[in-house]
């Protein structure tokens, strides 16, 4: 199942898709260090992204005829356009931000006409102040061939989209679209990370898609900590036990994964790097101050941010039960984002943390991409094959 990844970053959605069984025929990313991360990891013959073609380019400058090579059709286009225009940590300028790449995403879809697309972005996109723009994005992705005109502002384009898409004469490309906000912790990721997924299937396929059901819960973690074996399994003394404040309930789901669950078998990072572990170096300077408290060890991590020192809330720090804090090593942050231990992140600590903070958690990506792939496989298997004359 041929897939193109754009705005690929360090490769979280890309890797999750590969684990879900899709074949990437190209990845587009403009950041040099993120491209190096993908290149080095795809050079390993044991990697699920082995042989990945990486295009270090602005997605708007890609010559798709050359990039696709011999591929006649693209099954899936996936990617996470830059989130800064909608992020609570940014200026939240949406369409007025030059980093807004949703129009570019729609243009790629209009050119490649994939059977499906998967778009990921921050929950901030669903804020009330962005309501109109989110509806514009959804309509733009649903009808990607209704292009913007030269000099046309997005609100003018939005009005025209509403008119042209409902006209009886419209016969262009159309997608059945579903938008859903999910919490990565509900799918086994050791992190509270709320993100919106916008998934579309080409309308001629007749697919009605529903987001995957949650597999993990806070209540199940609370039950494990109050009545289960959580503390004994991790050999935590009673005075250092701080369970989460949720209803103690067996709900048939698995417990949320905590920072301790994710890092339990990693040694403490060393200042010069840790023997036998990639990217596991102690980063000094972590401090607690009002509003900057880090992630408790026995809860899912706060959502990692694409910054290094001083990110709001101290998301890139661990807070231990004894009261002290330290920064995540790059390897620990990769664990929080469910990257495999043999996946190397390139660039200095801040650059590697930026890649991880921007990434889709690999496990969440695998769940979503698996669901999309299953729908496409099911449709393909139901297509009647032409009879061969003997």
* Shape category: globular
Strand content: 15-25%
Mean pLDDT: 91
Catalogue the unreliable spans. 86-97, 385-390
CATH level 1 class label of the largest domain: Alpha Beta
Q: Report the span from N to C terminus.
A: 30 Å
Query: What Rg is obtained from the alpha carbons, in whole angstroms?
Result: 22 Å
Give the CATH topology of the largest domain.
Rossmann fold
Number of helical stretches of at least 4 residues: 12
TL;DR?
With about 400 residues, the protein is an alpha/beta fold.
Model description:
This protein has 390 residues and is α/β, with parallel strands linked by helices. The chain has twelve helices and 14 strands. The protein has helices at residues 12-19, 32-42, 64-68, 102-112, 131-142, 154-166, 218-226, 230-233, 259-263, 330-336, 349-358, 362-382, and strands at residues 2-6, 23-29, 54-56, 76-79, 116-122, 175-183, 191-192, 194-202, 216-217, 254-255, 295-296, 301-302, 317-319, 325-327. The strands form four sheets. Strands 3-2-1-4-5-8-6 form a seven-stranded mixed beta sheet, with helices on both faces. A three-stranded mixed beta sheet has the order 11-13-14, with no helix packed on it. Helix 1 crosses helix 12 and helix 5 (131-142) crosses helix 6 (154-166). It is globular and about 70 Å long.
